Amino acid sequence: MDSQFRERQSGADFGGAIFPSMVTILLLMNAFLKKSACWIVGSVPLTCAAAQLEIQAVNRLPLARSSQTLEISAAQLAPLKAKDLNFIHVKDSAGKEVLCQAIDLDGDALRTFDAVIFQADFAAGETHTFTASVGAKQVYAKEQYKAFGRFVRERFDDFVWENDRIAHRTYGQALETWQGEPLTSSTIDIWSKRSPRMVVNDWYLADDYHVDHGEGADYYSAGATRGCGGTGLWANGQLWLSRNFTSSKVLANGPIRVLFELGYAPFPVNGVNVAETKRISLDAGQQLDHFENHYQPAAEQATPLTLAVGLKKTAGEKIESDAKQGWLVKWEKMEKNAGNQGLAVITRPQDFEKQAEDSLNQLVLAKVGADHVATYWAGFCWDKAGQFTDSEGWKHYVKEFAQGLASPIEVKAALQGSGN
Questions:
Q1: What is the CATH number of the domain that holds 280?
Q2: How far from the centroid of its chain's Cα atoms is residue 278's Cα?
Q3: Could you tell me the residue range of the domain that residue 160 belongs to?
């Protein structure tokens, strides 16, 4: 009996139950694997607990803010070690997947993604928490797109863009020499829409966008005016204008943000030639576009540049402005008895110089920085779209938008468990 017992203890009896020596080994292995970060299956490691980045977003204003775009930089996301930012996924505090988009902010030669954006609604003073992690590459369904834009060569070099609220177009070089209706203008045109879906491709396809078939139409004649946020430079008491854009480049194209650049040939400004690159972005859920005008004045340019942002004059328009917040708003009747619309321009308060006008436009004059970059926001609403039905509601939106620019959502990110 003693010898048989010693054989079982040493594992010699293979026909019996699991022996004490094997139990000990298995317990040790189990303890080791629980402490390990991953299991090894063959030669392929499978992550048990993937790294997660905790994101905290704070609204410091005492007002509700919808469709706020939150941006997490590539540097902040680096601890997740994603192959590229298209593999980043974001979830809210309830674990629900949030629509997000990787974007290229600078248009570098490698088209490297520089950040991930996503959106959230905030109550007054509210804080939200999200988590970012690495998953499958993002592939979006058509119905998820809330922002889109493209160059339209087949329509005399238009560039058109939209979100789920508004749409615009501006004119390229081919329109200057079109025999049917030539137009030289760097205006920003309005396309009034009342559908959240992306419509501009369908409108061009049908080529019947001056008639409302239930989603809106082109009711606006921008012509040679500044339309809705077109610009020039102000010098010697007058407005100096570029011609139609000569180049375009799309940097980001939905589902949340469309971001693109338009290039303009040098144009005379009080005796000096100035080239221009206009960077435009529009986010889902917003009524206003963000513009950055980058100027390249000739070497002999010695005086500071002054930006002039314009809104087309119309009969009977109601106009208000606020220099402290940097905005100009107007409310007007539309052409073809299509209803009413509100237009607005917002500059940074420190840039706002004064309200002005010429024969075609209401203007906001604003400083251009020493780096020759001018920043402003411009956009519109249509009462038949339903979001804003009177001038007071529109002005209230513009005032709160300006407050939001002065107090952006505060965003912090830290690797979970880092203690930061």
A1: 2.70.98
A2: 15
A3: 143-389
